Amino acid sequence: MMSGEPRAYPRNVKCEGVEVELRRMTAADQAAVLAFARKLPVHDLLFMRRDVRQPKVVAAWVRAIDEDRVASLVAVRDGAAVGTTAILHDRMSWSPHVGELRIAVSPDYRGRGLGRVLIQECFAMALELGLEKLTALMTVDQRSAISVFETLGFRPEALLRGYVKDSVGEVHDIVILSHEVARFHAQMAAYGVTDAF
Question: DSSP string spanning the chain?
Fold first, then answer.
């Protein structure tokens, strides 16, 4: 297992000239994350498996962080959450080397590069956790998100037809993308490019 150096947070990043603070999510962020989730289009929530607009779901998310089952970042601008990430991993499973990446970005911050920055931060976090592979699930019609993931090296692995059902009972297909982060990092290191993440 490969393990990366811990990333320093909080840190500020610029997304099209707008400065956003990235920090590890804690219990102190629950209200901000809940307010953020409640502003997301419902369709964006379909791949998250749980309705993060519910206080008990966000509280469970924070407990999972405290229990080291989830690593999460929150992107903050002017005191409001504008993006979140979560890497779910289970060291007791048959796939302790795989993490599932979940990401959400405020509609107001899409197209500014924040999603790309958050995904890249997750690459570093995955290595820090000793993960070798990341997967991401999304509905097939989320073409912009799929495109961002693909430009960062994710590749489609599976299509699950009728996998999620929205609040009005309509079913949606989910695509699973994956990225071999440890292999990619090792290749970059072999070329002397250690700042790839």
Answer: ---PPPPP-SEEEEETTEEEEEEE--GGGHHHHHHHHHHS-GGGGGGGSS-TTSHHHHHHHHHHHHTTSEEEEEEEETTEEEEEEEEEE-TTSS-TTEEEEEEEE-GGGTTTTHHHHHHHHHHHHHHHTT--EEEEEEETT-HHHHHHHHHTT-EEEEEEEEEEE-TTS-EEEEEEEEE-HHHHHHHHHHTT-TT--
In tens digits, what is the pLDDT along the chain, a chain of 197 residues? 344 567 889 999 998 889 999 999 999 999 999 999 999 988 888 778 788 999 999 999 999 999 999 999 999 999 999 999 999 999 999 999 999 999 999 999 988 999 999 999 998 899 899 999 999 999 999 898 899 999 999 999 999 999 988 878 899 999 999 999 877 666 555 556 555 44
Domains of the chain: 11-190 (3.40.630.30)
